[in-house]
User: Which sequence fits this backbone?
């Protein structure tokens, strides 16, 4: 079967059977979270924007926040045949696009908070985070392929790496 | 916080007028800096889904140069001057030509000098914008040192998504396009100035403008 490509938008979250290529374009402070079970041949991706859903209505997209996206994507994985001990996670993103010397504003460091919250939530659910390419001040485009279960990370001026 | 989706057209027009006054002053500053006429579009107040910010402003993967400042004080906001990378490069070339009287091709200018020129332009243009609107509102303000980034449009606009995302799913932005006139054939220098009011500051703005 040919590998189809799916591009996720902001706050999107999906879990699909292999073979598939999951893509997110131009992550800045956002996080691209990948989870997969190579035995059950199922993979998921979420484009997380913010760490915490505190105080927001339940109608919001679950993929938007780290604290809601992680449980939702794991639940979806289990529904599609994955088992928890076999699920592995990879993350990329969480950059700080602008540094303003002397200025303090919460949203400037949201990337680091996204990384921290995603890691915390994965750990709390007992999911192994096996690789990460996070932080810095550059945007990333990511591509996860179930052909080799690798996450390709493209960064402007730095080329492509696989994690 | 005010529900931005419920703003009346009178309120949105009042916010647009703030953008108009700010951009007018910014265009004058840019014109002085580059010794060229500046064409300025009528600003628009836009309610944009935070999930579609990049698509709203162009190709999410397009490489852009962006200068970002924070304004704190009475009317808290962020301001971003965003240009296609090529336009930003032409602008730096033109600026250095004005300053030193000789043409240096962009690939011979060190990146630090390009960034420092962009910071300087951003500082002057965005400060002019903010000075005008604070004068109008009668508010005091402090402006941060500008931050510069070169990256994909989509990554740059994450900063807007993270300001408005914590409140809901819609961002209120005031957007104007500026372009420099009288350039050589085949050259284009344009840019967007996007005013990103802090969601908490919108009420203050509307009260000052006497439309709330």
Assistant:
């Amino acid at each position: 079967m040919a590998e189809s490509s799916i591009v996720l938008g902001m706050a999107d979250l999906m879990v699909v059977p292999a073979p598939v290529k999951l893509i997110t374009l131009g992550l800045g402070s956002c996080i691209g979270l990948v989870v997969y079970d190579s035995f059950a041949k199922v993979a998921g991706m979420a484009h997380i924007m913010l760490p915490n859903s505190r105080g927001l209505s339940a109608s919001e997209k679950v993929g938007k926040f780290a604290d809601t996206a992680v449980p939702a994507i794991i639940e979806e994985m289990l529904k599609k045949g994955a088992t928890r001990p076999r699920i592995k996670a990879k993350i990329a993103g969480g950059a700080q696009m602008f540094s303003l010397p002397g200025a303090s504003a919460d949203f400037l460091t949201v990337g680091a908070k996204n990384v921290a919250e995603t890691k915390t939530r994965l750990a709390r659910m007992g999911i192994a985070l096996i690789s990460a390419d996070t932080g810095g001040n550059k945007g990333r485009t990511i591509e996860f392929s179930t052909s080799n279960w690798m996450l390709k990370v493209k960064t402007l001026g730095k080329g492509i790496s696989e994690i | 916080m005010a529900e931005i989706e419920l703003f009346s057209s009178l309120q949105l027009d009042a916010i647009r007028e703030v953008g108009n006054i700010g951009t007018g002053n910014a265009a004058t500053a840019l014109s002085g800096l580059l010794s060229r006429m500046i064409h300025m579009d009528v600003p628009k107040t836009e309610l944009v889904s935070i999930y579609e910010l990049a698509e709203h402003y162009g190709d999410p993967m397009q490489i852009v140069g962006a200068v970002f400042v924070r304004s704190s004080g009475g009317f808290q906001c962020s301001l971003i001057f965003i240009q296609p990378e090529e336009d930003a490069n032409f602008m730096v070339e033109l600026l250095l030509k004005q300053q030193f009287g000789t043409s240096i091709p962009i690939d011979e200018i060190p990146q630090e000098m390009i960034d420092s020129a962009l910071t300087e332009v951003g500082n002057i243009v965005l400060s002019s914008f903010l000075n005008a609107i604070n004068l109008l509102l009668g508010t005091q303000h402090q402006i941060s040192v500008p931050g510069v980034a070169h990256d994909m449009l989509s990554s740059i606009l994450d900063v807007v998504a993270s300001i408005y995302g914590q409140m809901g799913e819609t961002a209120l932005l005031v957007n104007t396009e500026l372009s420099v006139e009288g350039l050589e054939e085949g050259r284009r220098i344009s840019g967007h100035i996007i005013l990103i009011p802090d969601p908490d500051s919108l009420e203050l703005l509307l009260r000052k403008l006497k439309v709330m």
Observations:
- DSSP finds two helices and ten strands in chain A.
